[in-house]
């Protein structure tokens, strides 16, 4: 509800309560975020629109396009009531009081800022469509992760073609959900961040968006700032999270060389309340669609601001991440007698983390690339990744792998553990799926080539038990007592 002060400054043109929200982009952010808004705000009609008919069809089918624990149940409760997925972009924009822009912002693969700057093509196209079709004033919410000052660019794009008497208030409202835990993150966020103009209309718009979240989030957790601080906070949060992983992974290299154990070290330092115990899990390296992209975005910003040392500092987070993957593969090749040629390797997991089918920037992609360069035959076991998606990732031109070779040498088994492990020289854990802990490793050992190796890139298995079965085991960040 708006406060009395907000009522006083409420502009005439926006004097109605929020009844209709449109979200442009039905992806990993737009879909779950709007499902929760619809679930928690039955009085608001929520339309999630996308240009991809295929994606919209999937949202409207029993097989929604995103695997996210708890999401399907919420979608099925609201769909057709106050939650709608449609390609009728223009119609939904026109009806909306608030429009979320949740489109993809990948790293540019061409032109100025190649490999660094975010590609704002989709944001621009969404803004231009809004500007063209909106006949009434709207609050526009930047939900996508964008560079600092993007709200200013969006405001200019919106002005390009707009109808007379139509005004737009642009807010920054970055999303902090993590895949695999999106529903919990959305229902119980650490905070909601809203940035807007520091004037009456800006404050009023912030109040309006805030009133939507207040349906389920405590007011004290809704932080408001100016737009640029909000935009930079999102990049900074992701950079700091990724930096913690690279820090712990760099320490894992010292552990392997020195005999210390990264799990013990992480535990010991995590007890310090100033450090905290989250995000200290050593791994094969972080993946996901955002960490690398957003750090590159930050580096590009620093370079443009002539902050060379700062750019270099953040670049090191990415350098360590690549180093961690290479180090892991080098160890595997060395243990397998310096050649993987025609050897079957079983990858446990291809998704970038557990509880998602998302493979974007997954560490497994680069690991497969190294294996294929070594001539290995790969069988991937992943409960949620689709074959076409995996092949698409491995066909990325940057990997420079001939597609026919990829299709010949890489197989996917969703759940058939025996098929995946039969005749394999090594099991390589790339994703921390819980189900991998439950396998019958005694039985698996019997059907593998000997010596049978396990490389645990996620520290999820019982290494001593595996060694007692007869496996040769290597794990990130520790030296194991193999017999
Ligand atoms: N994936 C994640 O967990 C998180 C992502 N973000 C940010 O949110 C944004 C979206 O990310 P995702 O949802 O993962 O991307 P996504 O690729 O899953 O979804 C984006 C959707 O937007 C649609 N789209 C693009 N241009 C459009 C247009 N003009 N009109 C209608 N639809 C259009 C695409 O077809 C696609 O379905 C990115 O900026 C990302 O950095 C932020 C927090 C978490
Ligand atoms: O902007 C985004 O897209 C999101 O990026 C991350 O979320 P996400 O990438 O979905 O997942 P994370 O849990 O952060 O994991 C990222 C990667 O780091 C790895 N990781 C995570 C934690 C850890 O201790 N060690 C580690 O290797 C994960 O396995 C995964 O590969 C952030 O956690 C979210 O807050 C943010 O909204």
UniProtKB/TrEMBL annotation:
<dbReference type="GO" id="GO:0006065">
    <property type="term" value="P:UDP-glucuronate biosynthetic process"/>
</dbReference>
<dbReference type="InterPro" id="IPR001732">
    <property type="entry name" value="UDP-Glc/GDP-Man_DH_N"/>
</dbReference>
<feature type="binding site">
    <location>
        <position position="55"/>
    </location>
    <ligand>
        <name>NAD(+)</name>
    </ligand>
</feature>
<comment type="pathway">
    <text>Nucleotide-sugar biosynthesis; UDP-alpha-D-glucuronate biosynthesis; UDP-alpha-D-glucuronate from UDP-alpha-D-glucose: step 1/1.</text>
</comment>
<dbReference type="GO" id="GO:0003979">
    <property type="term" value="F:UDP-glucose 6-dehydrogenase activity"/>
</dbReference>
<protein>
    <recommendedName>
        <fullName>UDP-glucose 6-dehydrogenase</fullName>
        <ecNumber>1.1.1.22</ecNumber>
    </recommendedName>
</protein>
<feature type="binding site">
    <location>
        <position position="50"/>
    </location>
    <ligand>
        <name>NAD(+)</name>
    </ligand>
</feature>
<keyword id="KW-0520">NAD</keyword>
<feature type="binding site">
    <location>
        <position position="179"/>
    </location>
    <ligand>
        <name>NAD(+)</name>
    </ligand>
</feature>
<dbReference type="GO" id="GO:0005634">
    <property type="term" value="C:nucleus"/>
</dbReference>
<dbReference type="InterPro" id="IPR014026">
    <property type="entry name" value="UDP-Glc/GDP-Man_DH_dimer"/>
</dbReference>
<dbReference type="InterPro" id="IPR036291">
    <property type="entry name" value="NAD(P)-bd_dom_sf"/>
</dbReference>
<dbReference type="GO" id="GO:0051287">
    <property type="term" value="F:NAD binding"/>
</dbReference>
<feature type="binding site">
    <location>
        <begin position="25"/>
        <end position="30"/>
    </location>
    <ligand>
        <name>NAD(+)</name>
    </ligand>
</feature>
<dbReference type="InterPro" id="IPR028356">
    <property type="entry name" value="UDPglc_DH_euk"/>
</dbReference>
<dbReference type="InterPro" id="IPR014027">
    <property type="entry name" value="UDP-Glc/GDP-Man_DH_C"/>
</dbReference>
<feature type="domain" description="UDP-glucose/GDP-mannose dehydrogenase C-terminal">
    <location>
        <begin position="346"/>
        <end position="463"/>
    </location>
</feature>
<feature type="binding site">
    <location>
        <position position="360"/>
    </location>
    <ligand>
        <name>NAD(+)</name>
    </ligand>
</feature>
<feature type="binding site">
    <location>
        <begin position="103"/>
        <end position="107"/>
    </location>
    <ligand>
        <name>NAD(+)</name>
    </ligand>
</feature>
<comment type="similarity">
    <text>Belongs to the UDP-glucose/GDP-mannose dehydrogenase family.</text>
</comment>
<dbReference type="InterPro" id="IPR017476">
    <property type="entry name" value="UDP-Glc/GDP-Man"/>
</dbReference>
<feature type="active site" description="Nucleophile">
    <location>
        <position position="290"/>
    </location>
</feature>
<dbReference type="Pfam" id="PF00984">
    <property type="entry name" value="UDPG_MGDP_dh"/>
</dbReference>
<dbReference type="Pfam" id="PF03720">
    <property type="entry name" value="UDPG_MGDP_dh_C"/>
</dbReference>
<keyword id="KW-0560">Oxidoreductase</keyword>
<feature type="binding site">
    <location>
        <begin position="290"/>
        <end position="293"/>
    </location>
    <ligand>
        <name>NAD(+)</name>
    </ligand>
</feature>
<comment type="function">
    <text>Involved in the biosynthesis of glycosaminoglycans; hyaluronan, chondroitin sulfate, and heparan sulfate.</text>
</comment>
<feature type="binding site">
    <location>
        <begin position="144"/>
        <end position="145"/>
    </location>
    <ligand>
        <name>NAD(+)</name>
    </ligand>
</feature>
<dbReference type="InterPro" id="IPR036220">
    <property type="entry name" value="UDP-Glc/GDP-Man_DH_C_sf"/>
</dbReference>
<dbReference type="InterPro" id="IPR008927">
    <property type="entry name" value="6-PGluconate_DH-like_C_sf"/>
</dbReference>
<dbReference type="Pfam" id="PF03721">
    <property type="entry name" value="UDPG_MGDP_dh_N"/>
</dbReference>
<dbReference type="GO" id="GO:0006024">
    <property type="term" value="P:glycosaminoglycan biosynthetic process"/>
</dbReference>
